[in-house]
Write a structure and sequence with these properties.
Blueprint (H helix, E strand, L loop, with lengths): L6 E5 L3 H11 L5 E5 L5 H7 L4 E5 L7 H10 L8 E5 L4 H9 L4 E4 L4 H38 L1 H16 L4 H32 L8 E4 H11 L1 H6 L3 E5 L4 E5 L1 H17 L6 E8 L3 E8 L6 H8 L18 H12 L3 E6 L5 E8 L2 E3 L2
Parallel strand pairs: 1-2, 1-3, 3-4, 4-5, 7-9
Antiparallel strand pairs: 6-8, 8-13, 9-10, 10-12, 11-12
Helix pairs in contact: 5-7, 6-7, 7-12, 8-10, 10-12
Length: 365
């Protein structure tokens, strides 16, 4: 089993102890910062968070127990595991240390095997806790989004059905209501499909089968799926991908990503605009981009999307519903490839969503 490597903060008023900890932990691969002033710890953690804190109990001024209590009282710092370091086994002090939020303790003089085992265990637990919290937050977000976004189209569908039952309507009126009902049900179906894909991508239940795939073929498939929608909004579509360019990727997952990005681009591009699907490649990366001339986003909106903080639910240029799930799906599917989704945008100047995937391009005969 591989020992986790992490970012650590050591706090001790004894320079010799800090020097010894640094000498023991750096060769193991850990990144360690050392602080001898207890009153500088909170600020240091805000400036650069750590995954674990090693802290002496007995220090002048603020002792380690009080400092641990302050760390756990901060919303952004709460949950960072604290391992206390002590020169003597004082049961009362240790009880107070655990009550303040400490996770474990080490006694001086240090033993390399003890430090390695304790730090590895608590780093693994901390990361598991963070992952669980993220999963719970995503679950709550999904439930909230579904309860909000399904209520609208389902309620509209119910109203249309009641109206058609009550009637009578002329043939054109009936066809118009049926078209609206179809659009409402299609919106609901798309939302449910996206939610399923998102949930499966988070749980890694989507199969991952990379094969050498034709990038231009994938691009045209995504473009053709939305040609009718583009025609309705008078949006020009263009593919800028080299002929015979092949990349090692999962074509189904990338196709799903490109379809979501195309749908997003068309939604937020006004009539007369343009959407371009392009590909770039280098020695180590393959980039697939969907760029539009749409309404764009602010730096804050881009940052929130990239950090998966919120779901962007702005209406499209023709009032199209948006849930933000499509972008989250692309982020998850890019991660399945070991890559990421990069977002560049400015208000009023359009957006460019780029799948950055590890790998190279080769050209077929």
């Amino acid at each position: 089993m591989t020992t986790p490597i992490g970012s650590l903060l050591a706090v001790d008023d004894d320079p010799d102890s800090l020097y010894l900890l640094e000498g023991l932990l750096k060769p193991l691969g850990h990144r360690i910062r050392c602080i001898s002033q207890a009153d500088a710890v909170i600020q240091a953690l805000h400036q650069e968070p750590a995954e674990l804190v090693l802290m002496d109990i007995e220090m002048p001024g603020i002792n380690g127990i009080e400092l641990c209590r302050q760390i756990q009282a901060h919303h952004k710092l709460k949950g960072i595991p604290v391992i206390f370091v002590t020169a003597r086994h004082d049961e009362v002090a240790l009880a107070n240390a655990f009550a303040a939020g400490g996770r474990d303790y080490l006694t001086k003089p240090f033993r390399k095997t003890d430090i390695q085992a304790r730090i590895g265990t608590h780093l693994a637990l901390h990361r598991a806790e963070q992952q669980l919290q993220q999963q719970l937050a995503l679950r709550d977000l999904m439930i909230t989004m579904l309860s909000h976004d399904l209520r609208g189209p389902l309620g509209t569908a119910g109203i249309f059905i009641e109206q058609m039952i009550e009637g009578p309507f002329t043939q054109p009126e009936l066809m118009a209501r049926l078209a609206l009902l179809r659009n409402s049900l299609n919106s609901t179906h798309q939302l449910l499909e996206q939610t399923l894909d998102w949930a499966r991508s988070i749980q890694h239940d989507l199969p991952f089968c990379p094969v050498w795939s034709d990038l231009k073929q994938l691009a045209h498939h995504s473009l053709e799926a939305y040609r009718l929608k583009a025609h309705e909004k008078n949006i020009r579509l263009e593919v800028k991908v080299p002929d015979r360019a092949m990349a090692l990727l999962d074509p189904d997952l990338i196709r799903t990503s490109l379809l979501n990005l195309m749908n997003n681009a068309l939604k937020y591009t006004a009539e007369g605009g343009q959407v371009i699907l392009s590909a770039e490649y280098g020695d180590r990366e393959v980039k697939l981009s969907v760029c539009d001339t749409g309404i764009g986003m602010s730096a804050e909106q881009v940052r929130a999307l990239e950090q998966q903080q919120t779901i962007n639910s702005r209406a499209g240029t023709q009032g199209e519903k948006g849930s933000g799930l499509g972008i989250k799906i692309c982020q998850q599917l890019a991660a399945r490839h070991g890559g990421r989704l990069h977002i560049a945008s400015q208000p009023g100047q359009g957006s460019c969503f780029t799948l950055i995937l590890p790998g190279t391009v080769r050209f077929s005969d």
